[in-house]
Write a structure and sequence with these properties.
By secondary structure, the chain is of the alpha/beta class. The chain contains six helices and six strands. Strands 1-6-5-2-3-4 form a six-stranded parallel β-sheet, sandwiched between helices. Helix 5 runs parallel beside helix 6. The longest helix is centred in the last third of the chain and has 23 residues. The N terminus is likely disordered.
Amino acid sequence: RRVSYRSPWRRSGGMCRGCAAREPSAAEEERLIAATAGAGPDKVLFCFGCGYTSLALFGALRAKGWTVHATCRTEGKQRRLRECGLPAHLFSPADGICLDAAGREALAASAAVLSTIPPADEGGPREDGAGPGDGAGEGPDVAARLLQTLPAGSLPKLRWVGYISSTSVYGEDLGGAWVTESSELRGETRKAALRIAAEGQWRALHQHLARQE
């Protein structure tokens, strides 16, 4: 089963659906670098998640003079990343691990925020009684949920937000047909439905942050 796609970069809101497990091409790297280059004089990126795709991007950004912070879920990976010179912060709400003071400070100083974390499948309402949705503090994407609940003015330098999604939102098998940004979203699997919900959550976050300006 496969899905062909014409362009991996979603033009609206810096969203990317081309997150295959491969090193991004030079053109893809340059596209995100160009998008974040206008983020402001403070070249600081905070990335939720630190996997294969984001690591390749970090190298390109750091070569351009950016400071990159990232989150990971375990102390072992945090230690390895820090040994390589990458400031890493623990973040795994499913395990009860929230950003510490240093992580929140780095987030507050960031001009660009990128999320590569897959949406959480919690299987029902959270302990606070909230279920999936697009409101503040709700939805399957834990990074967006955190940003939604920050007090107004917590991100004074933020100029750009990006989310890496998946081509699965277009369906499991289109027979090799091309898809574009206007193609119908088809959540045929649980994971795809969660991705679509997370995309809506990030769009709602954009509106939420815009109202704070």
